[in-house]
Amino acid sequence: MDVTSLFSYTAWYPFAWAGLTAPFFAVHVQTLVYTWISMVLLLGGAFIARRYFFSNDGLIYGSIELLVTTFASMCVDSIGYFRRDYFNFIATLFLFTFSGCIVSVLPYMEESTKDVNTTFAIALISFFYICYQQIAQEGLLHFLEHFLGHPEMPMVVRIIMIPLETMGKLSKILSMAFRLFGNVIGGAVVYHLILSIVFLFKEQFLMAVLVGGVVWMVLFKFYGLKKKSPLGRVINVAIQSLFVLAAIQMFFGVFEPLVQSFVIAMLSMTYLALGVKHDLTRDPKGLAWN
């Protein structure tokens, strides 16, 4: 299996009729398809969650409750109180990023977030949302004054600070985009390398899995070998190690996307808390949260 296939895309140029055929105007078809499939799955999950949310029990209800309390607590820990618009933003950002990553567990699917264009889009959404909240609170002129540096500095120094402050703002986009892209593509490369090894010895691997399954059935089902006995433990671990590929796929397909999506949401909330002044007594959208 060729790892370089992770970086190959079918390009579509929707504005070719206007002569715009530069790489900037190219649309990666695979990324577009994977993104829309992840959004369909996310929408379907929302309908299922809404259906079972009012049952007050079960795995779905517990998962929804955990998700809500986690991001509500993140909002409270960051700014000191709860704001529904902040909660909606970071929860949506998390769910979209997570669905774009976890779609790779489906057959013939890959992460939409392994395309750097997707990670930059997520970072830009976070950046412009923070800018919007700053402008809504302070006004456009006061927001632009931040690019001049500290107000107590001489005006000449403040003018010199404009490109530095601008680079500091834009570095947040680069930080978020490349952090997500690097972690996702790194996991994909490692998983594809393991697949390459398996496919290199696929006959021996499939034979080992088949023989291991038969041995497990004979010893534990027909001969009644106890799994907690010393010999049973050794045989059980040896046979289960043959299915390490499935465990690796679950790690890179579920656990790692969960962590990376949470990091993106947490960073966005941190930048929001640092960039916007918050005071519950003066914020009409703020709610006390215990």
Give a description of the structure:
By secondary structure, the protein is mostly helical. The chain has one domain (3-186, 257-287). The protein has nine helices and four strands; from the N terminus they run ββααβαααααααβ. It has helices spanning 29-53, 58-79, 84-102, 116-138, 140-145, 155-200, 202-222, 230-240, 244-275; strands at 11-12, 27-28, 82-83, 286-287. Strands 1-2 form a two-stranded antiparallel ribbon. The protein has a two-stranded antiparallel sheet with strand order 3-4. The mean pLDDT is 78.
Brief summary:
This protein has 290 residues and is an all-alpha fold.
What structural class is derived from the secondary structure elements? mainly alpha
- Give, in order, the helices and strands: EEHHEHHHHHHHE
Rg over C-alpha atoms, rounded to the nearest angstrom: 25 Å
Strand content: under 5%
Output the strand order for the largest sheet.
1-2
Overall pLDDT confidence: 78
General shape: globular
Helical run tally: 9
Helix content: over 70%
Number of structural domains: 1
Number of E-state strands: 4
Largest sheet: 2 strands, antiparallel
Termini, distance in Å?
A: 52 Å
**Which parts are unreliable, with pLDDT below 50 for 5 consecutive residues or more?**
none
Oligomer: single chain
Keywords:
290 residues, two-stranded antiparallel sheet, 71% helix
Give the topology:
Elements: E1 11-12, E2 27-28, H1 29-53, H2 58-79, E3 82-83, H3 84-102, H4 116-138, H5 140-145, H6 155-200, H7 202-222, H8 230-240, H9 244-275, E4 286-287
Antiparallel strand pairs: 1-2, 3-4
